[in-house]
Design goal:
single chain; 242 residues; alpha/beta; TIM Barrel; ten-stranded mixed β-sheet; two-stranded antiparallel ribbon; binds iron/sulfur cluster
Amino acid sequence: MSNAHVVEIFSSAQGEGKFVGCRQVFVRLADCNLNCNFCDTNFTRTNFCRVETSAGSMTFRDEKNPLDAKRVAALIKTFCDEVPTHSVSFTGGEPLVHADFIAEVAALTDAKIFLETNGTLVDEFKKISAAVDFVSMDIKLPSVVGRDLFDVHEKFLRAAVDKDLCVKIVVTGSTTDEEFLSAIELVANVDEKIFVVLQPVTPVNNVPAVDAKKILQRQATALRRLPNVRIIPQTHKSIDVL
Ligand code: SF4
């Protein structure tokens, strides 16, 4: 049985994207292969995983890391028994760093599997694709990660297009017209019906916010090429839930 370093496990409402507001169990795995300038997520390995004491209590106890797949599946079941749950979100960090672990947990749970990914680990995704029901995939713009990831994003999108798929693009005040258009074109070339969320950045690390007119302009640009483009900010922060 495989194990993984888990940062936290809790039950809350999805705060981003197409399934905003849905009740989920979140399994936040340690480690990430990128370094985004707006990242405010703790994905460092620690000796202990914090586990919510009951669904939605927002109080935690510690469990020793790493956790094995059977233990994580048991915790998921406990939360799902407490509150009817849409799906289990494997998030991070980048959860696909632990692809084998996710597949093993998925095999031990009846819950639907929701993957929140930065859309770069294509081979890892292909390995576990059959176990995944929902994919929320980021397109990381060059102004965010300091390099062009469009080729790998396109490969990932093609591998995930048969899933219930949502693409999220975080838009900042530094987003350029050129990179934004490239991202939209990339999605349109794979499948024009893909659901796209433009997420105005929650300013952090001196990353500039995008102003109201600009985000509406970006949506208008995208809608000329794709029918399903919505502006959805991070909602969990506004109601102060995890
Ligand atoms: S991919 Fe996600 S977790 Fe990793 S650095 Fe970027 S924002 Fe942070």
